[in-house]
Amino acid sequence: MENNEIPRVSIIGVPISAVNLDSCVRQIEKHLNEVKGQYICVSNVHTTVIAHDEPDYFRVQAESFLSVPDGKPLSVIGRRQYPQMGRVTGPELMRRLFEESRRKGYRHYFYGNTPENLELLVTKLRSRYPHLNIVGYEPSVFRALSTQEEEELIRRVTAAAPDFLWVGLGAPRQERFCAAMKGRIPALMIGVGGAFNVLAGLIPEAPEWMQNSGLEWLYRLSREPGRLFGRYLTTNTKFLYYQLTKRPPS
Hints:
Blueprint: E1 8-11, E2 14-17, H1 21-35, E3 39-43, H2 45-53, H3 55-62, E4 66-69, H4 72-78, H5 90-104, E5 107-112, H6 115-128, E6 133-138, H7 147-160, E7 164-168, H8 173-180, E8 188-191, H9 195-199, H10 208-212, H11 216-223, H12 225-245
C-alpha cells in the first residue's frame, strides 16, 4: 500500500514523510490492518546520505509505508515546506505504541541485537508496561540469513501473529531486511536500531534540551567516539554538501 495521505518532502533528493509523532501514530493506527507486510523507516542524516548515494537503498526508503524524520536536520529542513513536520525517534515511537497497546491490545515481536541485550530489553518492557503483549523475540545472527533461515524466521513470526515486528539490526541493514521481507511477514515492520538498547537502559538518551537544539549527535559522539566519529565526519559532511548544492540522487 502506498501512503498517499502523507506527503513527502525531498531532502537531498530522498523522500521523507512529512509527519510528526502524533500524525505518524494516527496513520499507523488508521491503516494497520492494511499495511501489515509493509515497513516504516526511521530515517536520519546517515540513512538519507546512504539513500542519496546508493540507488538500491534509495528504493528501500522510497517504497516504505512511511520514512519518518528521526534526525533533527530532516525535520528542520522539512518544516520549510510542511510546518507540521517534527521528529519521530525510534524510542519515542516505541513508547507511544506501547502505551497505545493498553487500549488496542497490540501484539509485539522483537528481532535483533544480542541475546543478552534483548533479554534485558524484554525484562525492562514487561516491568514498565505490564499490559504489553510480547508474543516473541529473538536475537540477530549478525550475518546474512540463508534462504532456509529466512523461511524459518518468517514461519516463527507468522505463527506468533504480531501486529508489529520491531527490528533492531542497525541501519542500513534493518531497512534492507524489512524491504526484503515486504509482503512475506504479516506484521508492520519498523526498524528502530539503537532504540532497543535505549529502552533496555544500556544507552542513555541525550538530555531533552540537546535533542530540541539538534545537538543529540554531539551527545552520542561523546558517548561512543570510536564508533561514531568517522561516520559523523563522513555522512554529516556529505549531507551538508548535498543540501547546499541540491544535488539529485545518484
